[in-house]
Design goal:
Strand order of the largest sheet of chain B: 6-7-8-3-9-10
Largest sheet of chain A: none
Shape of chain A: globular
Structural class of chain A: mainly alpha
Number of helices of chain B: 11
Mean pLDDT of chain B: 88
Largest sheet of chain B: 6 strands, mixed
Strand content of chain B: 25-35%
Radius of gyration of chain B: 25 Å
Distance between the termini of chain A: 40 Å
Number of strands of chain B: 20
Helix content of chain B: 25-40%
Radius of gyration of chain A: 24 Å
Number of helices of chain A: 13
Shape of chain B: elongated
Strand content of chain A: under 5%
Oligomer: heterodimer
Chain lengths: 299, 377
């Protein structure tokens, strides 16, 4: 019986294809040049230049002054607080986002559309409003404060408040990243795993998770970048107590307002580096695991 | 493993997908669930697998009440229409999945699993492809990996949902033959779902014809083809002509004919539909009073067959006739010729079936899948 071969998989050619682009849909060189030039100019002006200026300003007085900025105990405290907030907020949102995406894509229930809208809420409201909500709840006149202040402890103007605000603002990142992918993948793989005898947990860890791991990782990276960089909501709930409730972005603002430009830009360069590392990491992962990515169709 | 299905009911919202299904499946049998979309055939298959919770009724595997068992405990080998292969696993890992997820006590060691997987790969003729990922396989190869994966757990029963639906015609034919052979070799009780009558008749020992959540007929290939129990089965298997007729005083007379065609059972008294296939009509003599007169409006020669479209003089309806045409020297029927026809074989059905359709509010444009998703959101 001849049932072999004829795979529709991409065949590796032993030579490069002669023409990589299709001449039919190509523009004339002039148009091409103009379009590419416009895009590059725009990117340089609005992305590259500001990014560069951060580093230029930070290094204006030499490397010594640059590193001295990180020796400041208040800066170190700000870094510590930012890391703590991210370390709590990101895992929490990892669990929330995964559960929400799981519930929305693998089950049918009443109010599903409402839940999806709710998840998007932090994206659509201004972070300042988000911060104010927590002030209204936990502030001196807030309805939860009497009980909370007595039994749990301070929320506003301390670490819990900052974590809460960060969780709120970064909530949609992971769920939003996962929902479209999991919707597209459907539930057949899970059903197949169950019919083969896998338990619910085995199905999740061995089938669902591998199918979404790239989207999940991407979501975590984005979530982390935002958690560390969040300004508005955190600013409202923080109280700006130096060395205690200042996160990196807040600390940068204070330094800048006090005309400590080198310090301000040095700390800012840290956040800029974080952004670049995030992007580099993402690109590296995509490059390193291109085969698997292609197999699971994502990004 | 023999399977008994008793009074199985399933609703999706207001849609009644399974209306009390009773079915016995013998051990080692190759059974086809045949029906149009919306007939409930896939729902029934999923109900047997435990993927669809039932609203009522019983599914028994041998003496075990399977309705009380979870999907995992049922140990069925289910092959999905789109295969549902694990994309991030190699062919080898896909097939080994069912064995490797067993609890530690029951799990074979790695070497045994490996050996078993390699045996299965040979069985499905995919030796040498174990390191490939599903994305690197053709449709037919994916299908066979899915089958090997299902067989790896030594299932009580093998369930296939539209196994050849996503394949092109040539591969489909090959796979069909191959599946038949595989079934002979392994002897698993196998149930497959199809909407393709040719596929069902060619592959299965017995065919279950389903329509709107009920079983219309269960029988061997010969039985469902030669003796359709209902107009639906007649319609679904082939393209019959439906001729109106009257049964009065124990004799059948076709509407438009002057004489009686045949004796008829007294139970069929009244207006009837006479179902007859194009190849069951014969050219009648000019003086045959039971025959229907018509005019040839269309002729088409395919090989040894001559297909005629004949417009009946009485009703004006056009019926299809297939006549053998073995001798090219014989003058064949031409458009415009007058012809007289009488059915050599036919079946009577009382005229009532059609009126019932409108009453049920059945919407044939909605598939069960759509009902399934609608009822849940």
């Amino acid at each position: 019986m001849s049932l072999d071969t004829a795979p529709d998989s991409p065949v590796r050619l032993p030579f490069e294809p002669l023409q990589k682009t299709n001449s039919v849909i190509n523009e004339p060189p002039l148009v091409r040049g103009l379009l590419i030039g416009a895009a590059l100019a725009f990117l340089s002006l609005f992305l590259l230049l500001p990014l560069l200026s951060v580093f230029v300003e930070a290094l204006r007085k030499g490397l010594g002054a640059y590193f001295a900025a990180f020796g400041d105990p208040e800066t170190l405290e700000a870094i510590k607080l930012t890391v703590i907030a991210a370390l709590i907020a990101v895992p929490l949102n990892l669990v929330f986002g995964l559960s929400a995406a799981w519930a929305i894509t693998k089950f049918e229930f009443r109010g599903k559309q409402f839940l999806i809208t709710l998840i998007d809420l932090p994206f659509s409201v201004s972070p300042v409003v988000a911060g104010l909500v927590f002030v209204l709840i936990f502030g001196a006149q807030g309805w939860a404060q009497p009980w909370f202040g007595e039994n749990v402890g301070r929320v506003l103007f301390s670490t819990p408040g900052i974590v809460l605000a960060t969780v709120f603002v970064t909530f949609p990142f992971i769920a939003r990243e996962l929902i479209p992918l999991m919707q597209e993948q459907g539930t057949e793989d899970e059903q197949a795993a169950l019919s083969l005898g896998a338990t619910g947990w085995q199905t999740f860890t061995r089938v669902t998770l591998p199918n979404i791991k790239w989207a999940l990782l991407y979501g975590v990276l984005l979530c982390n970048a935002r958690a560390m960089g969040e300004f508005g909501a955190v600013s409202v709930v923080s109280g700006h107590i130096r060395g205690l409730t200042n996160t990196l972005p807040l600390h940068i603002e204070i330094l800048y307002n006090e005309y400590q430009f080198v310090s301000a830009f040095a700390v800012a360069s840290l956040l800029a580096l974080l952004a670049m590392v995030t992007l580099a990491l993402k690109s590296f992962l995509e490059w390193r695991y291109a085969d698997q990515l292609a197999a699971t169709r994502r990004h | 493993m023999d399977i008994q299905i008793r009074g199985v009911q399933k609703h999706y919202g207001s849609f009644h997908a399974l209306r009390g299904i009773d079915l016995d499946i013998a051990s080692g049998e190759l059974l086809a669930l045949l029906g149009p979309s919306g007939s409930g055939k896939t729902t029934l298959l999923r109900a047997i697998a435990g993927l669809e919770p039932l609203d009522g009724g019983l599914v028994k595997f041998g003496d075990v009440d399977a309705t009380a068992l979870s999907v995992q405990e049922r140990k069925v080998g289910f092959v999905f229409q789109q295969y549902a292969l694990f994309k991030h696993m190699t062919v080898l890992d896909n097939i080994a999945f069912g064995l490797s997820v067993r609890p530690k006590r029951e799990r074979p060691d790695a070497a045994t699993i490996n050996k078993r997987v390699r045996e299965l790969l040979e069985l499905v003729q995919l030796g040498g492809l174990e390191k490939r990922y599903p994305a690197q396989l053709s449709g037919g190869q994916k299908q066979r990996v899915a089958l090997a994966r299902a067989l790896a757990i030594e299932p009580r029963v093998l369930l296939l949902d539209e196994p050849f639906g996503a394949l092109d015609a040539k591969v489909r034919k090959d796979l069909r033959r191959w599946l038949r052979q595989l079934h002979r070799e392994t002897g698993y009780t196998t149930i497959f779902v199809t909407h393709d009558q040719e596929e069902a008749l060619e592959l299965a020992d017995r065919v279950v014809v389903m329509n709107r959540g009920v079983i219309e007929q269960v029988g061997t290939t010969d039985e469902v083809w030669d003796a359709p129990l209902t107009p639906f089965v007649y319609d679904f298997l082939g393209t019959p002509n439906v001729l109106p007729g009257q049964v009065a005083g124990g004799v059948l007379r076709l509407s438009g004919a002057s004489g009686a065609l045949d004796a008829a059972p007294a139970a069929a008294e009244g207006t009837v539909d006479v179902y007859t296939r194009p190849n069951e009509l014969r050219v009648a003599a000019a003086d045959d009073p039971a025959a229907l007169a018509g005019k040839v409006v269309e002729t088409q020669r395919t090989g040894l067959l001559l297909r005629l479209g004949v417009q009946l003089l009485g009703s004006g309806a056009v019926i299809e006739v297939e006549l053998p045409h073995p001798d090219p020297a014989v003058q064949r029927w031409q458009t415009g010729d007058t012809i007289r026809l009488r059915p050599a074989r036919y079946r009577l059905f009382p005229r009532s079936g059609l009126a019932a359709d409108a009453a049920t509010g059945f919407d044939p444009t909605l598939t069960v899948t759509e009902h399934r998703s609608r009822s849940r959101s």
